Every structure is written in structure tokens, then in C-alpha cells.
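Write out the bound-state structure for FE2/S2 (inorganic) cluster.
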Amino acid sequence: MRVTLRVRRYNPEVARDPWWQDFDLESDPRARVLDLLHQAKWYHDGTLTLRRSCAHAVCGSDTMMINGHNRLACKVLVEDVAPVIVCEPIRGLPVIKDLIVDMEPFFRSLESVKSWLINEEPPPNSERLQSPEERERFDEGTKCILCAACTTSCPIFWANDEYVGPAAIVNAHRFTFDSRDRGAAERLEVLADRTGVFKCRTTFNCTSVCPRDIPVTELIQEMKRAITFGKI
Ligand code: SF4
Ligand code: FES
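---
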């Protein structure tokens, strides 16, 4: 099938403002948008710049806006978005070049909420045991691939980049509800702050774009409840 791939280009070394470039391409309908971007870059314009790695919806590095929605380019079939496929960088993070944004603020937010296991107790001789029910409690958050689709589709984040954003809250939830973790109090203190969970206005954009089907809004609500009632 013939498709038009329309890409928002930006290169501060060439022009101050972004511009649009169209590529008229022949594509297998079952190819993915990432294949089209490769075709454009490898055979038409080598200056086109994008970030990707696994090409199998695992690494989270090729998140972009495709026809107005945050998606992984390696997961979207051409036939589902053709004939005009518009690719833009995700919103709310500085664009470095073309489809590549600076992820540094996103990772800083993750760090600020201490999204890692905190436990100073001496480790037992074998594993820190956990029941299947305890493991189940934080299962959804473990599926996150840190693609930033949720955070950069959140209108609160667009308006206020100090808001830690949905992805950071999902990853804080993953450890806060882990029975082996002892860091809930410090994490909840950070998230109770004015840049934390109460900035969320429950618009559900995050949940609707998550490529791993994580119920992001629900996890944010659980964190709000944990702070409000002081209980996890
Ligand atoms: S919660 Fe979903 S959308 Fe957000 S960073 Fe993780 S995988 Fe991506
Ligand atoms: S390239 Fe890894 S998720 Fe798409």
C-alpha cells in the first residue's frame, strides 16, 4: 500500500523552528511504523533522527506521537494508522533533534521518588520470602518499561514540569507496596509534596496510552489513598 509518512523535523543547527517533511512510501500493511521510519531514514534522508533499540515493545525508547497519540513506533501496525501517518516527538520534554527528546527530567523524577527497594535490615541467609498474594499486590507496576508515554500525555505535566508525573508514581507504587521494602514513609513524604500525587486530576490520559496496559490512574489513586490514610 502507498502511505504518506509525515514527520515533524527539528534541527537547531539548521533552522530555529521545526518543519514538516513528507515521505511517500510503499509499505506492507502489516509492517510497523518503526519500519517506515527506517525506510525513510535508510533510503531517503539519512539526517532523520529517532531513538529505538529492541523493536519489540520492550525497551520503551521509541515512544512518539503517532497521529496525535503517544505510542511505541515498533508496536503500531501501518494498516491501523494509514494512509497519512503523522509522527511527532512526545510533548513536555525538550526536543534535541527530530523525534528525540531529552529524557533527563523524566529520569530525575523517577529518582526523586526513590523508585528502588529500600531495606537496611540485614539480609536473611536465603531470599527475602514473599507470598504469592504479597507479590500480586505490586504486579502491575513491574510491567512498566519507562517509555514515558504516560507522563508526556498528561496535561498536568505539560502545564507544570515540576509534577513528578504518572510514570514516577507507578514506579514508586511498585516498591511502596512490596512487602520486602521499608521505604514507604520516605517515598510517601516526597509524593505528598506539592509536586506529587495530588497534582493528578484523574484525566486518564496516562492509562489510555500505556503500551503495557498498566492501570496507571488506579495506581495513582492507591498512592493518594496511602498518603491520605497513612496506610499501605
Ligand atoms: S506506566 Fe506505562 S506508559 Fe507509563 S512509563 Fe510505564 S509502561 Fe510507559
Ligand atoms: S524499540 Fe524498544 S520499545 Fe520500541
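---
The first strand starts at residue 2 and ends at 9.
The pocket of iron/sulfur cluster (ligand 1) is lined by residues 60, 144-150, 166-167, 170, 209-212, 214, 216 (CB under 6 Å).
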